[in-house]
Amino acid sequence: xxxxxxxxxxxxxxxxxxxxxxxxxxxxxxxxxxxxxxxxxxxxxxxxxxxxxxxxxxxxxxxxxxxxxxxxxxxxxxxxxxxxxxxxxxxxxxxxxxxxxxxxxxxxxxxxxxxxxxxxxxxxxxxxxxxxxxxxxxxxxxxxxxxxxxxxxxxxxxxxxxxxxxxxxxxxxxxxxxxxxxxxxxxxxxxxxxxxxxxxxxxxxxxxxxxxxxxxxxxxxxxxxxxxxxxxxxxxxxxxxxxxxxxxxxxxxxxxxxxxxxxxxxxxxxxxxxxxxxxxxxxxxxxxxxxxxxxxxxxxxxxxxxxxxxxxxxxxxxxxxxxxxxxxxxxxxxxxxxxxxxxxxxxxxxxxxxxxxxxxxxxxxxxxxxxxxxxxxxxxxxxxxxxxxxxxxxxxxxxxxxxxxxxxxxxxxxxxxxxxxxxxxxxxxxxxxxxxxxxxxxxxxxxxxxxxxxxxxxxxxx
Length: 462
Description:
Layout lengths: L1 H48 L16 H5 L37 H6 L2 E6 L5 E5 L8 H14 L3 E4 L2 E8 L2 E8 L1 H82 L2 H39 L7 E3 L1 H10 L2 H6 L3 E6 L5 E3 L1 H17 L6 E9 L2 E9 L6 H6 L21 H11 L3 E5 L5 E9 L2
Parallel strand pairs: 7-9
Antiparallel strand pairs: 1-2, 1-5, 3-4, 4-5, 6-8, 9-10, 10-12, 11-12
Helix pairs in contact: 1-5, 5-6, 6-11, 7-9, 9-11
Protein backbone atom coordinates (compact mmCIF):
# COMPACT_ATOMS: atom_id res chain seq x y z
CA UNK A 1 0.00 0.00 0.00
CA UNK A 2 2.77 2.43 0.91
CA UNK A 3 4.60 1.67 -2.32
CA UNK A 4 1.39 2.29 -4.26
CA UNK A 5 0.91 5.59 -2.43
CA UNK A 6 4.49 6.59 -3.23
CA UNK A 7 4.04 5.70 -6.90
CA UNK A 8 0.77 7.62 -7.09
CA UNK A 9 2.46 10.69 -5.57
CA UNK A 10 5.30 10.51 -8.10
CA UNK A 11 2.91 9.98 -11.01
CA UNK A 12 0.67 12.87 -9.92
CA UNK A 13 3.62 15.23 -9.39
CA UNK A 14 5.21 14.33 -12.73
CA UNK A 15 1.89 14.52 -14.60
CA UNK A 16 1.27 17.99 -13.18
CA UNK A 17 4.77 19.14 -14.09
CA UNK A 18 4.54 17.68 -17.61
CA UNK A 19 1.20 19.41 -18.15
CA UNK A 20 2.61 22.72 -16.91
CA UNK A 21 5.75 22.49 -19.06
CA UNK A 22 3.70 21.41 -22.08
CA UNK A 23 1.51 24.50 -21.73
CA UNK A 24 4.52 26.79 -21.28
CA UNK A 25 6.59 25.31 -24.13
CA UNK A 26 3.60 25.12 -26.47
CA UNK A 27 2.55 28.67 -25.60
CA UNK A 28 6.03 30.10 -26.13
CA UNK A 29 6.49 28.33 -29.46
CA UNK A 30 3.00 29.22 -30.69
CA UNK A 31 3.73 32.88 -29.90
CA UNK A 32 7.12 32.59 -31.62
CA UNK A 33 5.60 30.94 -34.70
CA UNK A 34 2.83 33.50 -34.93
CA UNK A 35 5.45 36.25 -34.75
CA UNK A 36 7.30 34.65 -37.68
CA UNK A 37 4.10 34.37 -39.71
CA UNK A 38 2.99 37.90 -38.81
CA UNK A 39 6.34 39.39 -39.80
CA UNK A 40 6.36 37.47 -43.08
CA UNK A 41 2.74 38.43 -43.88
CA UNK A 42 3.45 42.07 -43.16
CA UNK A 43 6.37 42.07 -45.56
CA UNK A 44 4.38 40.16 -48.20
CA UNK A 45 1.52 42.62 -47.88
CA UNK A 46 3.96 45.46 -48.45
CA UNK A 47 5.42 43.73 -51.50
CA UNK A 48 1.98 42.88 -52.91
CA UNK A 49 0.79 46.46 -52.45
CA UNK A 50 3.90 47.67 -54.31
CA UNK A 51 3.30 45.25 -57.23
CA UNK A 52 6.02 42.86 -56.12
CA UNK A 53 8.64 45.58 -55.48
CA UNK A 54 10.43 46.93 -52.44
CA UNK A 55 9.20 50.45 -51.56
CA UNK A 56 11.43 53.47 -51.92
CA UNK A 57 10.64 57.07 -51.16
CA UNK A 58 12.04 60.41 -52.21
CA UNK A 59 12.10 63.55 -50.14
CA UNK A 60 10.01 65.73 -52.49
CA UNK A 61 6.53 64.98 -51.18
CA UNK A 62 3.70 62.54 -50.76
CA UNK A 63 2.84 61.93 -54.43
CA UNK A 64 6.23 60.55 -55.49
CA UNK A 65 5.28 56.92 -54.99
CA UNK A 66 6.52 53.81 -56.72
CA UNK A 67 3.55 53.33 -59.03
CA UNK A 68 4.11 56.89 -60.31
CA UNK A 69 7.70 56.01 -61.12
CA UNK A 70 7.31 52.49 -62.51
CA UNK A 71 3.91 52.80 -64.10
CA UNK A 72 1.38 49.98 -64.42
CA UNK A 73 3.40 47.63 -66.68
CA UNK A 74 3.82 44.48 -64.53
CA UNK A 75 6.74 43.26 -66.66
CA UNK A 76 8.77 46.48 -66.39
CA UNK A 77 12.32 46.11 -65.11
CA UNK A 78 13.28 47.99 -62.02
CA UNK A 79 15.85 48.33 -59.28
CA UNK A 80 14.32 47.84 -55.83
CA UNK A 81 16.78 49.79 -53.75
CA UNK A 82 18.70 52.89 -54.68
CA UNK A 83 21.08 54.97 -52.72
CA UNK A 84 19.73 58.13 -51.19
CA UNK A 85 16.06 57.11 -51.24
CA UNK A 86 15.53 58.34 -47.70
CA UNK A 87 13.74 56.74 -44.77
CA UNK A 88 12.24 53.33 -45.50
CA UNK A 89 10.00 53.50 -42.48
CA UNK A 90 8.09 56.79 -42.68
CA UNK A 91 5.67 58.51 -45.03
CA UNK A 92 6.02 62.13 -45.95
CA UNK A 93 3.58 63.88 -43.68
CA UNK A 94 3.87 61.24 -40.93
CA UNK A 95 2.34 57.87 -40.26
CA UNK A 96 3.15 54.34 -41.41
CA UNK A 97 1.60 51.76 -43.68
CA UNK A 98 1.69 50.05 -47.07
CA UNK A 99 0.52 51.29 -50.46
CA UNK A 100 4.05 52.17 -51.52
CA UNK A 101 5.44 52.65 -48.06
CA UNK A 102 7.42 50.31 -45.78
CA UNK A 103 5.84 49.19 -42.48
CA UNK A 104 6.99 50.65 -39.20
CA UNK A 105 10.44 49.49 -38.18
CA UNK A 106 11.29 48.09 -41.61
CA UNK A 107 14.88 49.27 -42.23
CA UNK A 108 17.06 49.50 -45.32
CA UNK A 109 19.16 46.58 -44.05
CA UNK A 110 16.07 44.40 -43.84
CA UNK A 111 15.11 45.43 -47.34
CA UNK A 112 18.59 44.41 -48.59
CA UNK A 113 18.34 41.02 -46.81
CA UNK A 114 14.80 40.11 -47.85
CA UNK A 115 14.72 37.40 -50.50
CA UNK A 116 11.54 37.06 -52.55
CA UNK A 117 10.20 36.32 -56.02
CA UNK A 118 6.91 36.98 -57.82
CA UNK A 119 4.83 35.17 -60.42
CA UNK A 120 2.13 36.94 -62.41
CA UNK A 121 -0.82 34.86 -63.72
CA UNK A 122 -3.65 35.73 -66.08
CA UNK A 123 -7.33 34.86 -65.56
CA UNK A 124 -6.67 31.30 -66.83
CA UNK A 125 -3.83 30.83 -64.32
CA UNK A 126 -1.28 30.93 -67.12
CA UNK A 127 2.09 32.50 -66.29
CA UNK A 128 2.56 36.03 -67.66
CA UNK A 129 5.91 36.80 -66.14
CA UNK A 130 8.27 35.61 -63.42
CA UNK A 131 10.65 37.83 -61.45
CA UNK A 132 13.43 36.10 -59.51
CA UNK A 133 15.87 39.04 -59.43
CA UNK A 134 15.82 39.16 -55.62
CA UNK A 135 16.55 35.48 -54.98
CA UNK A 136 19.25 33.10 -56.14
CA UNK A 137 17.95 29.79 -54.72
CA UNK A 138 14.96 29.62 -57.11
CA UNK A 139 14.96 29.78 -60.89
CA UNK A 140 12.01 30.62 -63.11
CA UNK A 141 10.92 27.02 -63.63
CA UNK A 142 10.91 26.36 -59.90
CA UNK A 143 9.05 29.63 -59.35
CA UNK A 144 6.34 28.51 -61.76
CA UNK A 145 6.04 25.17 -59.94
CA UNK A 146 5.65 26.96 -56.60
CA UNK A 147 2.99 29.21 -58.13
CA UNK A 148 1.07 26.21 -59.50
CA UNK A 149 1.13 24.55 -56.08
CA UNK A 150 -0.10 27.75 -54.43
CA UNK A 151 -2.98 28.05 -56.90
CA UNK A 152 -3.87 24.37 -56.43
CA UNK A 153 -4.07 24.83 -52.65
CA UNK A 154 -6.87 27.37 -53.04
CA UNK A 155 -5.48 29.46 -50.15
CA UNK A 156 -4.63 33.15 -50.32
CA UNK A 157 -1.60 32.65 -48.09
CA UNK A 158 0.42 29.81 -46.61
CA UNK A 159 3.73 27.98 -46.65
CA UNK A 160 5.32 25.91 -49.39
CA UNK A 161 8.55 24.51 -48.03
CA UNK A 162 10.19 27.49 -46.32
CA UNK A 163 8.52 30.03 -48.58
CA UNK A 164 5.57 32.08 -47.36
CA UNK A 165 3.29 33.17 -50.20
CA UNK A 166 0.53 35.68 -50.71
CA UNK A 167 -1.98 35.61 -53.58
CA UNK A 168 -3.39 38.98 -54.64
CA UNK A 169 -5.78 39.77 -57.48
CA UNK A 170 -4.83 42.82 -59.51
CA UNK A 171 -7.58 43.67 -62.04
CA UNK A 172 -6.98 41.29 -65.00
CA UNK A 173 -4.19 39.24 -63.46
CA UNK A 174 -3.13 37.58 -60.20
CA UNK A 175 0.18 38.23 -58.49
CA UNK A 176 1.69 35.54 -56.23
CA UNK A 177 4.52 36.81 -54.08
CA UNK A 178 6.84 34.36 -52.32
CA UNK A 179 9.16 35.27 -49.47
CA UNK A 180 12.04 33.12 -48.24
CA UNK A 181 11.43 32.53 -44.50
CA UNK A 182 14.21 29.99 -44.14
CA UNK A 183 16.18 31.96 -41.57
CA UNK A 184 13.08 32.90 -39.58
CA UNK A 185 11.80 29.32 -39.57
CA UNK A 186 15.29 28.04 -38.79
CA UNK A 187 15.42 30.23 -35.70
CA UNK A 188 11.94 29.07 -34.75
CA UNK A 189 12.90 25.40 -35.11
CA UNK A 190 16.09 25.86 -33.10
CA UNK A 191 14.12 27.48 -30.30
CA UNK A 192 11.50 24.71 -30.47
CA UNK A 193 14.11 21.93 -30.26
CA UNK A 194 16.02 23.74 -27.53
CA UNK A 195 12.88 24.26 -25.44
CA UNK A 196 11.89 20.59 -25.81
CA UNK A 197 15.36 19.34 -24.91
CA UNK A 198 15.60 21.63 -21.90
CA UNK A 199 12.13 20.56 -20.77
CA UNK A 200 13.09 16.88 -21.02
CA UNK A 201 16.30 17.50 -19.08
CA UNK A 202 14.36 19.46 -16.48
CA UNK A 203 11.75 16.72 -16.18
CA UNK A 204 14.46 14.10 -15.71
CA UNK A 205 16.11 16.18 -12.99
CA UNK A 206 12.81 16.82 -11.21
CA UNK A 207 11.90 13.13 -11.50
CA UNK A 208 15.09 12.18 -9.68
CA UNK A 209 14.43 14.78 -6.99
CA UNK A 210 10.81 13.70 -6.54
CA UNK A 211 11.80 10.04 -6.32
CA UNK A 212 14.38 10.94 -3.67
CA UNK A 213 12.00 13.00 -1.54
CA UNK A 214 8.84 10.92 -2.13
CA UNK A 215 9.90 8.47 0.55
CA UNK A 216 10.32 11.25 3.09
CA UNK A 217 6.99 12.81 2.18
CA UNK A 218 4.99 9.60 2.67
CA UNK A 219 7.07 8.45 5.67
CA UNK A 220 4.58 9.70 8.31
CA UNK A 221 1.77 7.90 6.53
CA UNK A 222 3.92 4.80 6.22
CA UNK A 223 4.79 4.82 9.89
CA UNK A 224 1.16 5.27 10.88
CA UNK A 225 0.07 2.49 8.60
CA UNK A 226 2.80 0.16 9.84
CA UNK A 227 1.74 0.80 13.43
CA UNK A 228 -1.87 0.04 12.56
CA UNK A 229 -0.90 -3.11 10.69
CA UNK A 230 1.31 -4.33 13.53
CA UNK A 231 -1.47 -3.63 16.02
CA UNK A 232 -4.01 -5.67 14.09
CA UNK A 233 -1.61 -8.53 13.45
CA UNK A 234 -0.14 -8.58 16.96
CA UNK A 235 -3.53 -8.16 18.59
CA UNK A 236 -4.85 -11.02 16.52
CA UNK A 237 -2.09 -13.35 17.60
CA UNK A 238 -2.27 -12.22 21.21
CA UNK A 239 -6.03 -12.64 21.43
CA UNK A 240 -6.04 -16.01 19.70
CA UNK A 241 -4.06 -17.74 22.41
CA UNK A 242 -6.21 -16.85 25.44
CA UNK A 243 -9.37 -17.39 23.45
CA UNK A 244 -8.21 -20.89 22.56
CA UNK A 245 -7.41 -21.63 26.20
CA UNK A 246 -10.74 -20.23 27.42
CA UNK A 247 -12.66 -22.28 24.88
CA UNK A 248 -10.77 -25.43 25.87
CA UNK A 249 -11.53 -24.87 29.56
CA UNK A 250 -15.19 -24.19 28.80
CA UNK A 251 -15.41 -27.44 26.88
CA UNK A 252 -13.78 -29.25 29.82
CA UNK A 253 -16.20 -27.66 32.29
CA UNK A 254 -19.15 -28.71 30.19
CA UNK A 255 -17.87 -32.26 30.15
CA UNK A 256 -17.43 -32.29 33.96
CA UNK A 257 -20.90 -30.87 34.53
CA UNK A 258 -22.44 -33.42 32.19
CA UNK A 259 -20.68 -36.18 34.11
CA UNK A 260 -21.88 -34.79 37.44
CA UNK A 261 -25.44 -34.47 36.15
CA UNK A 262 -25.55 -38.19 35.42
CA UNK A 263 -24.49 -39.09 38.97
CA UNK A 264 -26.19 -36.51 41.24
CA UNK A 265 -29.70 -35.41 42.14
CA UNK A 266 -32.25 -33.35 40.16
CA UNK A 267 -30.99 -30.15 41.77
CA UNK A 268 -27.59 -30.75 40.34
CA UNK A 269 -29.18 -31.44 36.98
CA UNK A 270 -31.00 -28.11 37.11
CA UNK A 271 -27.74 -26.40 37.98
CA UNK A 272 -26.02 -28.19 35.16
CA UNK A 273 -28.67 -26.99 32.72
CA UNK A 274 -28.26 -23.40 33.84
CA UNK A 275 -24.49 -23.57 33.67
CA UNK A 276 -24.63 -25.18 30.27
CA UNK A 277 -26.84 -22.37 28.98
CA UNK A 278 -24.41 -19.76 30.32
CA UNK A 279 -21.45 -21.61 28.92
CA UNK A 280 -23.15 -21.81 25.55
CA UNK A 281 -23.46 -18.04 25.56
CA UNK A 282 -19.80 -17.70 26.47
CA UNK A 283 -18.85 -20.13 23.74
CA UNK A 284 -20.83 -18.13 21.22
CA UNK A 285 -19.08 -14.92 22.19
CA UNK A 286 -15.69 -16.63 22.09
CA UNK A 287 -16.46 -17.92 18.61
CA UNK A 288 -17.55 -14.43 17.59
CA UNK A 289 -14.32 -12.87 18.88
CA UNK A 290 -12.30 -15.56 17.18
CA UNK A 291 -14.08 -14.89 13.88
CA UNK A 292 -13.57 -11.16 14.28
CA UNK A 293 -9.87 -11.63 15.00
CA UNK A 294 -9.40 -13.92 12.01
CA UNK A 295 -11.30 -11.50 9.76
CA UNK A 296 -9.21 -8.53 10.90
CA UNK A 297 -5.97 -10.38 10.26
CA UNK A 298 -7.29 -11.59 6.89
CA UNK A 299 -8.39 -8.08 5.93
CA UNK A 300 -5.03 -6.61 6.90
CA UNK A 301 -3.16 -9.17 4.81
CA UNK A 302 -5.43 -8.69 1.81
CA UNK A 303 -5.15 -4.89 1.85
CA UNK A 304 -1.38 -5.07 2.20
CA UNK A 305 -1.14 -7.60 -0.59
CA UNK A 306 0.91 -9.96 1.55
CA UNK A 307 -1.64 -12.76 1.12
CA UNK A 308 0.24 -13.84 -2.05
CA UNK A 309 -2.87 -15.05 -3.86
CA UNK A 310 -2.21 -17.77 -6.40
CA UNK A 311 -4.02 -16.68 -9.53
CA UNK A 312 -5.15 -19.37 -11.96
CA UNK A 313 -7.88 -19.61 -14.56
CA UNK A 314 -11.02 -20.44 -12.60
CA UNK A 315 -14.62 -21.15 -13.73
CA UNK A 316 -16.23 -18.19 -12.00
CA UNK A 317 -19.71 -19.17 -13.26
CA UNK A 318 -19.50 -22.49 -11.41
CA UNK A 319 -18.05 -20.85 -8.29
CA UNK A 320 -20.84 -18.29 -8.05
CA UNK A 321 -23.56 -20.84 -8.83
CA UNK A 322 -22.38 -23.39 -6.26
CA UNK A 323 -21.62 -20.86 -3.53
CA UNK A 324 -24.91 -19.00 -3.93
CA UNK A 325 -26.77 -22.32 -4.07
CA UNK A 326 -25.30 -23.38 -0.72
CA UNK A 327 -27.27 -20.55 0.92
CA UNK A 328 -30.65 -21.94 -0.17
CA UNK A 329 -31.27 -23.73 3.18
CA UNK A 330 -30.44 -20.55 5.10
CA UNK A 331 -32.82 -18.56 2.89
CA UNK A 332 -35.63 -21.07 3.44
CA UNK A 333 -35.05 -21.00 7.19
CA UNK A 334 -35.33 -17.19 7.19
CA UNK A 335 -38.37 -17.27 4.89
CA UNK A 336 -36.54 -15.70 1.99
CA UNK A 337 -35.80 -16.77 -1.58
CA UNK A 338 -32.79 -16.64 -3.88
CA UNK A 339 -32.99 -16.08 -7.64
CA UNK A 340 -29.88 -16.43 -9.81
CA UNK A 341 -29.08 -15.24 -13.32
CA UNK A 342 -25.63 -16.63 -13.99
CA UNK A 343 -24.15 -16.52 -17.46
CA UNK A 344 -22.47 -19.89 -18.10
CA UNK A 345 -18.89 -20.60 -19.14
CA UNK A 346 -17.36 -17.39 -17.71
CA UNK A 347 -13.78 -17.76 -16.51
CA UNK A 348 -11.16 -15.37 -15.12
CA UNK A 349 -7.76 -15.26 -13.50
CA UNK A 350 -8.32 -15.51 -9.77
CA UNK A 351 -8.27 -17.49 -6.55
CA UNK A 352 -11.10 -19.99 -6.12
CA UNK A 353 -10.98 -19.75 -2.33
CA UNK A 354 -11.15 -15.95 -2.30
CA UNK A 355 -13.89 -15.77 -4.93
CA UNK A 356 -15.95 -18.22 -2.91
CA UNK A 357 -15.39 -16.03 0.12
CA UNK A 358 -16.44 -12.95 -1.84
CA UNK A 359 -19.73 -14.54 -2.91
CA UNK A 360 -20.32 -15.87 0.64
CA UNK A 361 -19.80 -12.42 2.16
CA UNK A 362 -22.24 -10.79 -0.24
CA UNK A 363 -24.83 -13.54 0.25
CA UNK A 364 -24.52 -13.46 4.04
CA UNK A 365 -24.84 -9.69 4.02
CA UNK A 366 -27.96 -9.83 1.80
CA UNK A 367 -29.65 -12.55 3.87
CA UNK A 368 -28.74 -10.96 7.17
CA UNK A 369 -29.95 -7.43 6.47
CA UNK A 370 -33.01 -8.01 4.27
CA UNK A 371 -36.63 -8.21 5.49
CA UNK A 372 -38.57 -11.45 5.77
CA UNK A 373 -40.05 -12.59 2.47
CA UNK A 374 -37.42 -10.78 0.40
CA UNK A 375 -35.98 -12.23 -2.79
CA UNK A 376 -32.17 -12.11 -2.98
CA UNK A 377 -31.00 -11.56 -6.55
CA UNK A 378 -27.62 -12.89 -7.72
CA UNK A 379 -26.39 -11.94 -11.19
CA UNK A 380 -23.18 -12.85 -12.99
CA UNK A 381 -22.50 -11.57 -16.49
CA UNK A 382 -19.68 -10.61 -18.79
CA UNK A 383 -19.48 -7.01 -19.99
CA UNK A 384 -16.74 -6.45 -22.53
CA UNK A 385 -13.49 -7.46 -20.86
CA UNK A 386 -14.97 -7.54 -17.35
CA UNK A 387 -16.81 -10.00 -15.15
CA UNK A 388 -19.66 -8.35 -13.24
CA UNK A 389 -21.01 -9.95 -10.05
CA UNK A 390 -24.09 -8.32 -8.56
CA UNK A 391 -26.09 -9.14 -5.42
CA UNK A 392 -29.22 -7.21 -4.54
CA UNK A 393 -31.70 -7.24 -1.70
CA UNK A 394 -34.28 -5.03 -0.02
CA UNK A 395 -33.02 -2.96 2.88
CA UNK A 396 -34.88 -2.95 6.18
CA UNK A 397 -34.34 0.82 6.47
CA UNK A 398 -33.93 3.55 3.85
CA UNK A 399 -30.39 4.06 2.57
CA UNK A 400 -28.89 7.51 2.10
CA UNK A 401 -26.04 8.53 -0.19
CA UNK A 402 -23.84 8.94 2.89
CA UNK A 403 -24.56 5.35 3.92
CA UNK A 404 -23.64 4.06 0.48
CA UNK A 405 -20.40 6.06 0.51
CA UNK A 406 -19.22 4.39 3.74
CA UNK A 407 -20.54 0.81 3.59
CA UNK A 408 -17.11 -0.58 2.66
CA UNK A 409 -15.39 0.99 5.67
CA UNK A 410 -14.50 -1.20 8.64
CA UNK A 411 -17.16 -1.48 11.36
CA UNK A 412 -19.53 0.90 9.55
CA UNK A 413 -23.24 0.14 10.06
CA UNK A 414 -25.99 1.88 8.14
CA UNK A 415 -28.73 1.43 10.70
CA UNK A 416 -29.65 -0.05 14.03
CA UNK A 417 -30.46 -3.39 12.47
CA UNK A 418 -26.77 -3.84 11.68
CA UNK A 419 -25.75 -4.65 15.21
CA UNK A 420 -24.26 -7.57 17.03
CA UNK A 421 -27.66 -9.16 17.40
CA UNK A 422 -27.67 -9.73 13.65
CA UNK A 423 -24.51 -11.76 13.98
CA UNK A 424 -22.14 -9.48 12.07
CA UNK A 425 -19.32 -7.24 13.14
CA UNK A 426 -19.18 -4.72 10.33
CA UNK A 427 -16.16 -5.74 8.28
CA UNK A 428 -17.71 -8.17 5.80
CA UNK A 429 -18.05 -5.63 3.01
CA UNK A 430 -14.55 -4.33 3.78
CA UNK A 431 -13.27 -7.85 3.16
CA UNK A 432 -15.31 -8.04 -0.05
CA UNK A 433 -13.73 -4.79 -1.22
CA UNK A 434 -10.23 -6.09 -0.41
CA UNK A 435 -10.84 -9.36 -2.29
CA UNK A 436 -12.15 -7.50 -5.33
CA UNK A 437 -9.15 -5.14 -5.30
CA UNK A 438 -6.78 -8.13 -5.02
CA UNK A 439 -8.28 -9.40 -8.30
CA UNK A 440 -7.69 -6.02 -9.99
CA UNK A 441 -11.33 -4.99 -9.81
CA UNK A 442 -13.62 -2.45 -8.18
CA UNK A 443 -16.70 -2.77 -6.00
CA UNK A 444 -19.48 -0.28 -5.43
CA UNK A 445 -22.82 -0.03 -3.67
CA UNK A 446 -25.92 1.72 -4.91
CA UNK A 447 -29.63 1.97 -4.26
CA UNK A 448 -32.14 2.72 -6.97
CA UNK A 449 -34.95 4.01 -4.78
CA UNK A 450 -33.41 4.06 -1.30
CA UNK A 451 -34.99 0.76 -0.28
CA UNK A 452 -32.88 -1.59 -2.41
CA UNK A 453 -29.26 -2.40 -1.63
CA UNK A 454 -27.17 -3.42 -4.67
CA UNK A 455 -23.51 -4.42 -4.49
CA UNK A 456 -21.64 -4.74 -7.78
CA UNK A 457 -18.12 -6.20 -8.08
CA UNK A 458 -16.39 -5.72 -11.43
CA UNK A 459 -13.22 -7.71 -12.17
CA UNK A 460 -11.13 -8.31 -15.30
CA UNK A 461 -12.10 -11.40 -17.32
CA UNK A 462 -9.79 -13.56 -19.41
